[in-house]
Design goal:
The structure is a homotetramer of 351-residue chains. Helix content of chain A is 41%, strand content 17%. Chain A folds into 2 domains: 95 residues, Aspartate Aminotransferase, domain 1, CATH 3.90.1150; 232 residues, Type I PLP-dependent aspartate aminotransferase-like (Major domain) (Aspartate Aminotransferase, domain 2). Chain A is of the alpha/beta class. In chain A, helix 1 packs across helix 11 and helix 2 packs parallel to helix 11.
Chain lengths: 351, 351, 351, 351
Amino acid sequence: MKYSFKNDYSEGCHEKILQVLVRTNGEQTVGYGEDPYCRQAREAIRQELKGPAEIYFLTGGTQTNLLAISALLRPHECAVGTELAHIHTHETGAVEATGHKILTVLPEHGKLTPRRVETLLQGYTDHHMVKPRLLYISNATEVGTVYTKEEIQALRELCDRRDLYLFLDGARLSSALCAEGSCVTLEDLRNLCHVFTIGGTKSGALFGEALVFSEPELARDFAYMVKQKGALLAKGRLLGLQFLTLFQPGDTGEKLLYEIGRQENQRAMALRKGLEELGIPFLEESPSNQQFPILENALLQAMEKDYAFETMGAVDESHTCIRLVCSFMTPASAVEEFLQDLRRKMEALSF
Amino acid sequence: MKYSFKNDYSEGCHEKILQVLVRTNGEQTVGYGEDPYCRQAREAIRQELKGPAEIYFLTGGTQTNLLAISALLRPHECAVGTELAHIHTHETGAVEATGHKILTVLPEHGKLTPRRVETLLQGYTDHHMVKPRLLYISNATEVGTVYTKEEIQALRELCDRRDLYLFLDGARLSSALCAEGSCVTLEDLRNLCHVFTIGGTKSGALFGEALVFSEPELARDFAYMVKQKGALLAKGRLLGLQFLTLFQPGDTGEKLLYEIGRQENQRAMALRKGLEELGIPFLEESPSNQQFPILENALLQAMEKDYAFETMGAVDESHTCIRLVCSFMTPASAVEEFLQDLRRKMEALSF
Amino acid sequence: MKYSFKNDYSEGCHEKILQVLVRTNGEQTVGYGEDPYCRQAREAIRQELKGPAEIYFLTGGTQTNLLAISALLRPHECAVGTELAHIHTHETGAVEATGHKILTVLPEHGKLTPRRVETLLQGYTDHHMVKPRLLYISNATEVGTVYTKEEIQALRELCDRRDLYLFLDGARLSSALCAEGSCVTLEDLRNLCHVFTIGGTKSGALFGEALVFSEPELARDFAYMVKQKGALLAKGRLLGLQFLTLFQPGDTGEKLLYEIGRQENQRAMALRKGLEELGIPFLEESPSNQQFPILENALLQAMEKDYAFETMGAVDESHTCIRLVCSFMTPASAVEEFLQDLRRKMEALSF
Amino acid sequence: MKYSFKNDYSEGCHEKILQVLVRTNGEQTVGYGEDPYCRQAREAIRQELKGPAEIYFLTGGTQTNLLAISALLRPHECAVGTELAHIHTHETGAVEATGHKILTVLPEHGKLTPRRVETLLQGYTDHHMVKPRLLYISNATEVGTVYTKEEIQALRELCDRRDLYLFLDGARLSSALCAEGSCVTLEDLRNLCHVFTIGGTKSGALFGEALVFSEPELARDFAYMVKQKGALLAKGRLLGLQFLTLFQPGDTGEKLLYEIGRQENQRAMALRKGLEELGIPFLEESPSNQQFPILENALLQAMEKDYAFETMGAVDESHTCIRLVCSFMTPASAVEEFLQDLRRKMEALSF
């Protein structure tokens, strides 16, 4: 196999993170995230948020989602997301396992829109039905699209009107924030979302998600729940060290988190441009590090021999949508080689 | 502070593990523990078990315990442990949060004994009460003692008679297996326990517990539950790499896991011997890497200035039990210095 | 108000049931459903089923559904129903509160069809998603339609192929079994469904659902779960007495349960015929005791003054679907008067 | 068998309740407890409470306990009761099944005392342990004793100091309130308990518990949870009718609930006096409708032939504690006959 575009967690971690882990390896610190590195990492993030916030470091995305949602909801309350919402489709019923239903609406370009949520809410009026209480959105979305600030604001206004929480899953937030056309900042998210996550795993960390409660009261006793769900890392400093590094300047002077997001996107844009030039259509127009081209099946099979990627599903009898993901380590050369091979195979199949 | 004996997860990881993580950092592998390193690690453990087994790598101890227990029990079934059982006292109700009660009996030297379990079982006879279905034991126990093979056998016989599962929490298994007087092997555990864990976090890994199902049928669909509880690590190979290293020969030719357990115990035995020579009594006679000496309160306060350790609780008005833990990194010099300082302070307090 | 067609639980109970409750009121029996009346009732039902079965008497429908489903499923398994499934829409997330997701497909005339389930199943292939394990159907359905024996057979064949349980919610089973065109018997249900319920509440009992496990092994330890979910009635004989009466001959010699179902349907058919004659369309063609006519909004408002009924939702800007339900006590005169009033109001509104 | 003292739910219901059910049987009302009878019953109870309160009618005790507790607690919070607490011993882990641990302390005469709770609380200090949040007491207790107003006040003061809820399980409240020496009133309970129940099942109703939230805010959205746990009775008026009758004057002019409690106690006191005269010792001195005499085993066996009662457990090798319960229907003659038979058998066994 020449290269895997299967996801953005195929490799280890960014070299700066690795260096920090090696350098601090022999130090003794207290456990469970109460060490100085975690404190410094929280402080570094708060500076970027430009405001107070409660920040918890967790290991993985599903863990973070189920913890945040189950901490915020009372037993009869439910989450609302799009039909593509990761918590709905790819987390093995993790939210339901904590007792809460997920209601869904059709997405618009992968996004949750106030209009569709409003229509849904009209049907939930009494105690024979669950009570919608939290909107779940992903940024970047499950199909690579990115919310504008105005879109998030509109959702927050709906939340304020209807007493809902706005929760943003930022598993691929670094890519979303650095996407062309995105003007959303971490400061905006603190202002607009009740709770959101900053993904580390898909942005150059070995693992780790930072969970940000914009209103500290919402995090009351959250530490208990982290422990209860088995999410409290003994050597918690590993999370602090990684996020501290992600929030320090990288080679360009910009914070490493953004540097990584920006580079992932550059590779993805190179892929997209190359695919467009070859006339390949896309499921959605994605400005982020996931691209969803639609390939003729024979072409897909030809490419599978040398490259790894996810198959998303049949679009019609002869075409299939695939997912190509660029990671913090994807070299420009891998993109170029992929595009060259694709062109060659298209010619061979005489498209 | 001169040194922390607070626990065995104050430092990073064993240097051999660190080297492997650095060496493989740039490689691409598939995620979620389906990579070659996880496969090799499972194979290495199976060789040590000398028999078939289903093995899952998880991140932390509470996570592992709640997952294994909730996977094995039906809704009305419960776990039975001692009143000291970690799942009962220090996991924030993690097992109950999955819907299952824990029943407890008084420990004998920290251990669960068939006699006390039998007595308990006599009271659980109909459907107005929970149904005991799983025995939970820790080895080493919460007070540092270690089960003999005969003791585990006796519990298994009880389990076979009463249709119970035997679950052994091996958070500190490497220390237990290498403790003086212990003749238990991993092969024995595969034969005697339905399910058990091999702790990595407290044995030189950055994190990681290996969960072993001795009867593969018991692991049916377990992967679903791992994902559902948020315990499936995206870069799963990190767990495989660490356990693979722990199950390869260390400097002495012995598997690294045992080398680490043996060294932790050596330090602990040096501590114990020194304390005994100073006439300090112990809560229990522990052959493993946790020691529970009972200090006069003034002495405790004097030592706290230079050393970190856990305080377990008052024994009487003027004495308190503390916990001293030796990790894979604890140097012999730290033990010596601690003992010297203790002797000096005892003299100063004119004991 | 002249009459309520709001539902089939607006009144107390059938007079034969009332007589039995009065007659036995002073007797002493053991509690929790272990009394002779419950035994006799189970036996009477088993005779009708023509085969062995485990039968539990419970108080209400949501309780019965959540108990049966949570008893059958392991944590990662889920139920599949139509988008109209009562457990999905009108039980406040009761199934999810036990930890299990519900997946839905579009109904065909209110029914679950093998074709749509098969399509759904194709997407559930690995442990990142829940595992479909149980099909939920209602008979009569939520829109009054009734399954044929062939339809249930086809679902069972799918279940056998795909290792699924078939669960039939018979809240309105008496009406369904006695509906014109239905050739399904209780014996058939025992052969075709793994688990099903026989509703008492909507068939002339004060309350009560009989839950039938066609394969006794599926009911293993079910009594524990009944108690655990708060569903074990202290004076359990109340359930036994009611079901015993429902399964004894009524005035016509037929079992009272069928007599009630048949009479409910007769009233409903009279309603339907009358509505059809007035040119009123229906949501679905229902042969059972629930009718779903679609009324012009002005007419609906006129009728609401004298009659109670449920409003199901707007069909278009000027029409709304309502639900009319006939109970075991609905007199023929109420139906006639309703139809006369309707005709009169239609004339007044000059349709 | 001559008579069963097994419990206070061996018979149907009080004749006044039966009459009301018969009289209203044919009426149509709306379902789910929104009918006029439920409203009137709530009003009648509120008058007795002399203050505002939110009141819900539920079917059984375990159901009521699990609902109230799970509605009040967040995921990491737990209940505290005595080791005899019904929720701990005889409800099949119902509270744990909603995710919450129960911590226990030794009882003093069956009661929870502030002193023992305080001692327990000292050990629960951080997020590695559950957070005690609710005290559970039963009145009458599981061994028949009755709380004084001062005892309940002392518990409430502890609750106020430590941010705990006080929950009183009044399954046998009518007996407790009317017990000799008790000066507690429903008004007191509204003032002292955050939540409490008024048991109907064991006080002459067919079934039914009234759950009283003294602070309406605590009941926010409780109706959703009632439905979600399967506890919303379709023909909810059955509960309203029964409680309305219990809160109307009986033959003596006193409210029927008290009349029943008083009569149950009279029978129990007659039993106790007779047993005392025969020199029989008791487990605890109970002024309520449950008596716990300790019988010589041969005598127990002799009595078992003619009388039904619960066996509580061996006291020593030759003595066993039994439970005798008097219901609203227990005739004075049954008590007399029991005592005569007992005397005769004692003589025959030549005590």
